[in-house]
Amino acid sequence: MASSVSNPQPYKRQRVRKACVPCRERKRKCNGKSPCEMCVAYGYGCHYSDDDGLSAPSRVQQVDERPHGSKNRPYVPSSINRNETRSIDTQNVTNQDNIDSAKSRYTIQHSAVAFPRSLGLELRSANPPRLHSFAWHCGIRPEENPNSHVLLSDLITREDYYRISKAYFSVVHPIFDVVDPEQLAKNVEKYWDGDVKTLGYGAVIAGVIALGSFFLGNLGHPREMDVVQYAKGILDDPTFSRIPTVEQVSAWVLRTIYLRATSRPHVAWLASCMTIHLSEAIGLHHGIDREDLAMTSNVSLKRTAEHTRRLFWCAWSINTILSYDYGRSSVSLNKITCKPVKETDGNYTTHLVELAQLIPTDSMNASATQLLNALAAVHESPNAHQFLSLTKGDICLSLYRRLRLLNHILDKSVVLQIIDIGNAALSAAYALVKLDQAWWNVLSTSFQYVCVLLAIDTPESLSHVAAAMRSLDNITQVLGTHIAFEAQKTAKLLLEDSMKKKRQEIQQLEQATHQRSTIETTHLLDIDWDALLDPSDTLNFM
Fold it and tell me: What predicted TM-score, i.e. pTM, was given to this entire model?
């Protein structure tokens, strides 16, 4: 190392031929790329002077529009943070947010991590501090050691993956479009060929396998749970979790879906919150178009941007709907500027996002008017897919439960809207369960709908209880699980309690009728029938 420092000739020769303007001004080593590694690391606006063979505007244009070669270094658009050279307006710099180029990390300017660098730029430092968590803790203990993992290829063969992934892409992908099929296919081949660079991507592959196996039912892979644990181990491994990536967000979305379908609500809710926090950490909520979001260099930036938008809105929709159904707070982001996803044939992500956006923003303090407006909007939304019909049912029943807490008396038209949504959800649930697509809401929506019909307690709602119970019974028989039988038993107990309550009310009414007839009978016994029947006294009687 000493010899390389003592010999400045290579550095001087490279600087004369290829050094960019910021590196020349700061007397830093430049590797001649566009952008160079030094400018990427420190956020400088990399550009070259005219005597380097390219004019400065053309170089800057390459920085803004052309992907650079490194997969691990993010693209920083000028609209987000282009920390230029000394000629930049430092006041504008301190009002913008930061992208950590080396770690793919989005940081707002008033963060403790970003402030030292912002201060250095404001002071026009020749060597401003890098975006780093300076003095975040005292450094008394070392960080966690990486975990040991078995290879995913030791749990499942490549042939089994392709068989199971077909179920994933036919059932899950049309609704939750969080994985790029072409990118996945390339990384699957690399992973099974032993490429160590794809180990972090193994959590995404494992998530696809787990969900595909789940929706194959009895035909699923016998080591499905081992694959789930493998994905969890990768996501929890400090080696990968220290630096947030788009792949981690995708893997966490897949894990959330699996946990929602198999585990307790609290666990699934925590996982959904984690996906939003990771999305914020890399700036997905701002729809940042960066080349590092593509795993392969030949993926176009436009396609990558659309994929990341779909990924963010899927994660946001899951967290919003799940939190509203569970009665917990969803993750609130300061500002979302991510563009909406485009609607495509055979893909229903747009419809899912639109349903989630119908939920009142202040879900815990929404007024009855806001809830009724949201319910009407949900009723008007199309039943584009059977899963979306179930999702409409989930949101509708959640809205009703909040209206009930407000002691709002429902109009007949509102009751009919709830019944219309609930009946469509029942039909969709039975159709999906017969296809062995055991989405979580084929059972939960059906059970909750029975409860809501009994709670509304009007002639219109009670007339649909029998059909709803039959559907719940049919779904239970097809599923044949403990949770299904438990829900069926609970619904029957509630129905019996409702009937018992009705009988008690009828008895109370009958008692009132019996008391009245006794009083009338006693009064008739005191009538002077002789005077009443005497024709001579009729006029006086009248």
Answer: 0.74
Residue spans per domain, the chain:
2-122, 142-357, 361-503
Model confidence pLDDT, tens digit, residues 433-456: 999 999 999 999 999 999 999 999
Using an 8 Å Cβ cutoff, are 183 and 221 in contact?
A: no
Task: Calculate the CA dihedral of residues 454, 455, 460, 465 and round it to 10 degrees.
Answer: -20
Beta bridge partners of 106: 99
Other Cβ atoms closer than 10 A to 524: 9
Q: Which residues contact 332 (CB under 8 A, 6 or more apart)?
A: none
Structure tokens at 164: 């199971």
Q: CA 336 to CA 361: how far, in whole Å? A: 13
> What span, in angstroms and rounded, lies between the C-alpha atoms of 430 and 426?
6
Q: Which residues pair with 98 in a beta bridge?
A: 107
Distance CA 18, CA 315 (A): 43
Q: Which of 66, 69, 63 is nearest to 82 (CA)?
A: 63
pLDDT in tens, 241-282: 888 899 999 999 999 999 999 999 999 999 999 999 999 988
Is residue 63 within 8 Å of residue 46, measured between CB atoms? yes
Whole-angstrom CA distances from 289 to 27, 35, 302 are 31, 16, 8
Q: What is residue 232's three-state secondary structure? A: helix
Maximum CA pair distance of the chain?
Answer: 145
Where do the DSSP E strands lie in 28-68? none
Length of the chain: 542
Of residues 414, 435, 391, the one with CA closest to residue 167: 435
Its sign, for the CA torsion 361, 363, 367, 370, is positive
Q: What is the pLDDT of residues 82-141, one digit of tens each?
A: 333 333 333 333 345 555 544 555 666 667 777 788 788 888 888 888 777 777 778 777
- As a whole number of angstroms, the distance between CA 177 and CA 350 comes to 10
| Residue appearing with tokens 């609130």 | 332
Asked if 443 and 475 touch (Cβ cutoff 8 Å), the reply is: yes
Phi-psi region for residue 43, left (φ > 0), alpha (ψ -120 to 50) or beta? left
H or E, element range at 432: helix 412-434
Structure tokens at 16: 């004369």
The answer to whether the CB of 58 falls within 8 A of the CB of 43 is no
Tokens of 203: 């959590």
Pairwise CA distance, residues 54 & 48, whole Å: 7
pLDDT digits (tens, 9 = 90+) for 369-398: 999 999 999 999 999 999 999 999 999 999
Alpha-helix residue ranges (DSSP H) falling in 221-284: 224-236, 238-241, 246-262, 265-281
Contact 27, 14 (CB under 8 A): no
Got the DSSP string for 380-402? HS---SHHHHHHHHHHHHHHHHH
- The amino acid at residue 62 is Q
